[in-house]
Amino acid sequence: DTGVSQDPRHKITKRGQNVTFRCDPISEHNRLYWYRQTLGQGPEFLTYFQNEAQLEKSRLLSDRFSAERPKGSFSTLEIQRTEQGDSAMYLCASSTTGQAGNEQFFGPGTRLTVL
Amino acid sequence: AQTVTQSQPEMSVQEAETVTLSCTYDTSENNYYLFWYKQPPSRQMILVIRQEAYKQQNATENRFSVNFQKAAKSFSLKISDSQLGDTAMYFCAFIHLPAGTALIFGKGTTLSVSS
Fold first, then answer.
1. What is the DSSP code (8-state) at residue A86?
2. Contact at 8 Å (CB) between B76 and B58?
3. What does each C-alpha distance from B26 to A87, A104, B73 come to in angstroms?
4. Which of A21, A37, B56, B91 has the most neighbouring CB atoms within 10 Å?
5. Distance CA A41, CA A36 (A)
């Protein structure tokens, strides 16, 4: 299976701890996106990379959040000093370069629970 | 404001029946793509169907079709001959052209198909 993969699938942490999630996009995809999905809501955009460049960040991405995509391959999303409000499913998606209507392929997500 | 409204939080249908999921959206842009994504329980989100806003002809994909009314900003999904595997959360979304990056999602409709 060469789809988008995410690791870990589940993470339970205590408030104040740092967590890091990894996303491996489909290999030929230049674009990579992070979304957050809370219970009963649709996904909300967090940030976007084209190759290794982070080109867009949502206002939802507070200073405690940082994302990287070294070498334009996998990406990491780190949350520092986690808060209970950070509990959510974090989704990664990737797509090919081209028009915005290109399909974004989603990974299975990382479910974060902050105690 | 850019928003997507799905007014039906939950719907139920029997196998082989037809069901229509509603979606309205708000954008001041004229060029965009519309999508329906399916998120089965504990599985990743997949694209069901998409529609370019400048195309008047409604998109179809096998048992799935849309009714796109641009003036009304309405984009409903019709599922014909419903199957048990259609049970999922369905999200309506749009993205602006040409350079949009973030998908704007609705809150979703949970569809249950029973035998």
1. G
2. no
3. 28, 21, 7
4. B91
5. 9
The verdict on A4 touching B (C-beta cutoff 8 Å) is: yes
Question: Do A93 and A105 contact (CB within 8 A), yes or no?
Answer: yes
Query: Is A56 within 8 Å of B101 when comparing Cβ atoms?
Result: yes
User: What's the token pair of residue A21?
Assistant: 């999630």
Query: How far is it, in rounded angstroms, from Cα A58 to Cα A90?
Result: 14
Q: How far is B92 from chain A (nearest CA, A)?
A: 9
Tell me the pLDDT tens digit for each residue of B2-57: 899 999 999 999 999 999 999 999 999 888 999 999 999 888 999 999 999 998 89
Report whether the peptide linkage leading into residue A8 is cis, meaning its omega lies within 30 degrees of zero: yes
Per-residue pLDDT tens over the stretch A41-59: 999 999 999 999 999 999 9
The Cα A57–Cα A66 span in angstroms is 10
Instruction: State whether B44 and A107 contact (CB < 8 Å).
Output: yes
